[in-house]
């Protein structure tokens, strides 16, 4: 006979509470390195169709395929994206230390409008705040080179075991996640749609828009067109609001310089070409790789970047999508459990 002071229900509640507390401590202890594990999960979903096609269908060796995918991820995704962010921040730092070009544009705008609304100290402070904000949200900057290498190593190391032990991973998820099979299927589909739409689809849309924006600014002789093209790549992750934040001010800059024709040209290309290419690509990609509502993407990006940094571009919309899926599951389950049996419906007609 047990002499425990806790009832069976209390023991169950305490066990769950202990697990949650330990999980919270583990997540807190991981700190910034948790982005490595989250990134591994994202890449696992992105490359899993390739892994399944090569390993499960063509019967290639799992370790050979996994190593090939890791090399591809490092060379094609991780290193170029890292280089792009470093170049972007380097140019922002340059503008923060050399505000003459920006002040010339602002002074020209002030002469056109007749209003004086800023000074060099304000511009310098805003640019320094922008660098500080980016430094908090980009792992490349928030941590030193050693920690960044550690995060990338953790990501690739985790991804290696996720693929080489794929069956055990999926069995563990089915065993320990507190959801029914139907709910797990909905969550899996939501994960696939989000990652496809916000990694593959959105990255492609952002790249196309960045190239178009950079070319437009270069053709109309806007200074530092390459830099503003890089800015457009990151802003393009914001639906509707993205690239207009680049080519709109560029057109305004041309107007302030007296180049009305070039300013009108930038506006026409932006409104007719860049915006329509964005809409067309979203429609085509939504049919092929996943459809996510623009409001979920927009709110998710704002939410995710504040929590996860640059990975929040993907993880934020995923969190919101999972929340909506779980709300639907809760509504369905609650309706099934709360619906009373109708005695009139059960009784046979007299």
TrEMBL record:
Membrane topology of this protein: Multi-pass membrane protein
InterPro entries tied to this protein: AI-2E-like
Tree of life domain: Bacteria
Subcellular location(s) of the protein: Membrane
Cellular component aspect of the GO annotation: membrane
Membrane in keyword set: yes
Keyword Membrane (UniProt): yes
First and last residue of the signal peptide: none
Protein name: AI-2E family transporter
Organism expressing this protein natively: Hymenobacter jejuensis
